[in-house]
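Action item from last meeting closed. Structure (405 res):
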């Protein structure tokens, strides 16, 4: 069987599996679980894989790794999905809406899981073809993408990338039409860190601010001035953004509180600046609060570096996109963070933007409770990822042939 024939056969298998995959996606969507608590989701995926005869290794709490194809492959491709949902209330009104109060799949991870599962099941049906070509496939169902540190760190520590030659993933993109795939060489996401500033001081009555250390005023200065200071101390080409999501201080309008906290995310496109930002951030915090005599403690938790797509891996995804009947479009670098970046620091690979907007329909936003995805995107994602396994071997085989000469 030629490579094109194998790709066509795998895509046909995905189409046959599509109703089943949609059932899985809806089930996961209706039963979301937060980071490192994805027990039901893990069990569901494990059951489907074992029923198909795919070898599974579960992680200690949640998540799993599965292998198929050649047992001692010349080339092994990993496909990654993330299992966790967000602490967001769903507002879609879908009949398969979240049944768990305050938690929903507002980032499309349910689609990612169903797509990787579908790719694995379709490839299993053509396992002989994979073995003939020396292809191994590893499915990574990862917990805790939405928190710091992400679950990618757990999988890497467990050996999930051992013997892996390339790794691929998709991420839902509601700004791209279903049936289209956003591809970008080089950085596609940003570095993302958690920043928390804790202030402590002598509180008092609001009628006598001069006799206190006016902590609320100082906290307001941190919120407004720390981003401003950094904008003049960092090279503008780093394209950083410090945005606050939580600000807490006080419980009464006429009381200056003794403590307060501001927490947010620091994001930047430049990976080099990301590795050196810590001392500057600490210095800037102390300078901002110095006039107010409060004590500041900075908590800076480094999160993830940018996802940097390998050029050759993007070529593979482009071949898979075209070979599976979809269209490739360009996509900009995002300030969003993704722990898939940690995999790409170990092995080459790429993340694609999977279009989830119904053509002509509404453009939704991620991390919002009203997110609705076009359901055809599940099969599109499965075809793309399965296609990357088949298309990727062509380039790898050619490279090995040249090296042998």
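Sequence:
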């Amino acid at each position: 069987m030629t490579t094109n024939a194998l790709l066509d056969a795998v895509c046909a298998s995905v189409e046959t599996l599509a109703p089943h995959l949609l059932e899985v996606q809806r089930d996961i969507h209706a039963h979301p679980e937060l980071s490192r608590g994805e027990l039901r989701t893990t069990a569901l995926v494990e059951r489907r894989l074992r029923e198909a005869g795919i070898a599974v290794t579960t992680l200690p709490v949640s998540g799993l790794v599965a292998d198929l194809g050649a047992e001692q492959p010349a080339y092994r491709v990993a496909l990654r999905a993330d299992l966790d949902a967000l602490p967001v209330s769903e507002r879609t009104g879908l009949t398969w809406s979240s049944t768990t109060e305050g938690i929903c799949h507002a980032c499309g991870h349910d689609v990612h899981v169903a797509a990787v599962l579908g790719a694995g099941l379709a490839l299993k049906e053509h396992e002989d073809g994979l073995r003939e070509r020396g292809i191994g496939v590893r499915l990574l169902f990862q917990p805790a993408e939405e928190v710091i540190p992400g679950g990618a760190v757990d999988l890497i520590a467990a050996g999930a990338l051992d013997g892996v030659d390339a790794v691929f993933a998709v991420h839902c993109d509601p700004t791209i039409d279903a049936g289209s795939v956003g591809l970008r060489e080089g950085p596609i996401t940003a570095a993302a860190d958690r920043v928390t500033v804790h202030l402590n001081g002598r509180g008092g009555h609001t009628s006598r601010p001069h006799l206190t250390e006016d902590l609320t005023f100082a906290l307001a200065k941190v919120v407004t001035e720390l981003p401003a200071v950094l904008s003049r101390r960092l090279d503008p080409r780093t394209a950083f953004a410090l945005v606050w999501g939580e600000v807490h201080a006080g419980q009464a309008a006429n009381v200056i509180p003794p403590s307060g906290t501001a927490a947010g995310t620091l994001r930047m496109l430049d990976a080099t600046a990301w590795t050196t930002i810590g001392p500057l951030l600490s210095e800037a915090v102390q300078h901002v609060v110095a006039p107010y005599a409060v004590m500041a403690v900075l908590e800076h938790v480094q999160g993830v570096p940018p996802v940097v797509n390998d050029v050759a891996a993007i070529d593979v995804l482009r071949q898979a996109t075209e070979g599976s009947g979809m269209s490739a479009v360009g996509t900009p670098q995002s300030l969003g963070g993704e722990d898939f970046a940690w995999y790409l620091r170990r092995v080459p690979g790429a993340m694609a933007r999977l279009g989830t907007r119904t053509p002509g329909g509404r453009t939704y936003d991620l991390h919002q409770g009203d997110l609705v995805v076009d359901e055809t995107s599940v099969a599109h994602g499965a075809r793309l990822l399965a296609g990357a396994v088949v298309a990727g071997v062509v380039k790898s085989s050619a490279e090995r042939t040249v090296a042998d000469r």
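Note appended to the action item: Confidence is low (pLDDT under 50) at residues 400-405.
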